[in-house]
């Protein structure tokens, strides 16, 4: 068996979550592979430490008061001056605007020179095209990149995305609201493009 | 009387009885809380996410498809809210993150052969906190929630092999970070 294939299953093997014959095959491999055996020993130590790591738990009163607080939040949202349907109609537009802004900037498909250009680009971008873009750059790419990335990379990418790259066009006070309005998949798509660009530059 | 199924509770709510929603909250509040807490780290932020998640459920339940799995839908909502919150949090912490860490990890750790358990836990928690967002999510789903790979693959639209690799790499990063911080 190939070590790289085996190793993907080692966490489950160590935690006893594998059934035969797969488990048996790994046991046989471990008998002849010192490198994978060392890997197992390290994992056992890591899982043992994780098992001892018990975070602070909320008490019973927290759980009994959660439902009323959820209903309060629902009521607060209902009482908002702007009706929910207006917010729902506006949010996708805000997300699309942010996406076009960021992707346009990142891909350098033509410089954007301000809000006027942005609204033109936005108005000329069919929503299906935008959706296609998002679909093609969804969670998969980011998960793969995540294999190689570290949290520090995540931070660098995000900083580049919003502070450096978007800084020209996005006022700092708007960054928070843009982050809130960009759906996860859209943000992933932009992060993925930035990562590709970063790799090609290196 | 046997407890109502998720589907029955959803139907109850759709007919106008809020008791259906309330029961779903009671049934899943702890699960949603721990998804958020494992990803985001703090109780306060997890509390905010769990409330938001159920507000979204309340708003979306009337249009929820009867043939879909309620918990899968809820898990996805909680996961997305947690990841978005984590992104925002990391963005805010770009500068102070290392400084905070420096304060949390004692400087004499390398010369101290017997780390106290609390210090070790701090390092371990930091190691998990430092995982890339999606890798952290995969680790949380598999290790803490013990979710089968097939279910994770459906939720994340990712292959089982890819998820296994992700889980493995997450664990390796945790090990590497702990090793580095312990100076061995």
Protein model, in words:
The complex is a heterodimer of chains A (202) and B (184). Chain A has eleven helices and no strands. Chain A has helices at 3-14, 22-32, 34-52, 60-78, 84-107, 115-124, 127-136, 139-148, 151-165, 172-181, 184-201. With 184 residues, chain B is mainly alpha-helical. Chain B has nine helices and no strands. Chain B has helices at residues 6-14, 18-40, 43-60, 70-92, 96-104, 117-129, 133-144, 149-156, 160-182. Chain B starts with 5 loop residues before the first helix and ends with a helix. Chains A and B meet through helix 1, helix 3, helix 4, helix 8 and helix 9 of A and helix 2, helix 3, helix 4, helix 6 and helix 7 of B.
Number of strands of chain A: 0
Shape of chain A: elongated
Low-confidence stretches of chain B: 94-115
Radius of gyration of chain B: 19 Å
The largest inter-chain interface, given as chain pair and residues per side, is: A-B, 51 and 59 residues
Sheet-strand content of chain A, in percent, reads: under 5%
Tell me about the biggest sheet of chain B?
Answer: none
């Amino acid at each position: 068996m190939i070590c790289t294939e085996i190793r993907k299953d080692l966490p489950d093997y160590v935690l006893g979550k594998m059934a035969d014959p797969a488990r048996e095959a790994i046991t046989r491999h471990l008998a002849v592979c010192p490198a994978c055996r060392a890997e197992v020993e390290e994992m056992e130590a890591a899982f043992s430490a994780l098992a001892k790591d018990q975070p602070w738990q909320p008490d019973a009163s927290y759980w009994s008061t959660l439902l009323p607080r959820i209903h309060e939040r629902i009521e607060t949202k209902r009482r908002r001056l702007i009706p929910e349907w207006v917010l729902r109609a506006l949010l996708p537009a805000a997300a699309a605007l942010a996406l076009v802004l960021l992707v346009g900037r990142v891909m350098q498909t033509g410089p954007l020179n301000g809000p006027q250009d942005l609204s033109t680009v936005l108005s000329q971008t069919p929503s299906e095209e935008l959706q296609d873009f998002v679909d093609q750059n969804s969670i998969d790419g980011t998960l793969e990149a995540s294999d190689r990335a570290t949290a520090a990379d995540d931070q660098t990418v995000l900083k580049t995305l919003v502070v450096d790259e978007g800084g020209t066009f996005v006022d700092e006070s708007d960054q928070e609201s843009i982050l809130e309005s960009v759906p996860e998949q859209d943000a992933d798509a932009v992060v993925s493009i930035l990562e590709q660009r970063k790799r090609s530059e290196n | 009387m046997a407890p109502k199924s998720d589907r029955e509770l959803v139907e109850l709510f759709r007919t106008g009885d809020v008791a259906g929603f309330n029961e779903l909250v009671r049934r899943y509040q702890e699960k949603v809380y721990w998804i958020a807490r494992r990803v985001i780290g703090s109780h306060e932020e997890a509390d905010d996410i769990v409330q938001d998640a159920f507000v979204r459920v309340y708003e979306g339940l009337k249009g929820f498809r009867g043939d879909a799995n309620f918990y899968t839908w809820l898990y996805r909502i909680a996961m997305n809210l947690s990841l978005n919150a984590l992104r925002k949090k990391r963005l805010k912490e770009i500068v102070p993150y290392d400084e905070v860490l420096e304060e949390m990890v004692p400087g004499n750790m390398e010369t101290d052969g017997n780390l106290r358990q609390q210090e070790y836990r701090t390092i371990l928690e930091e190691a998990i906190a430092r995982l890339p967002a999606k890798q952290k999510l995969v680790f949380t789903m598999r290790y803490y929630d013990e979710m089968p790979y097939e279910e994770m693959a459906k939720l994340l639209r990712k292959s089982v092999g890819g998820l296994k690799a992700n889980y493995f790499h997450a664990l390796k990063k945790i090990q590497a970070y702990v090793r580095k911080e312990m100076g061995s």
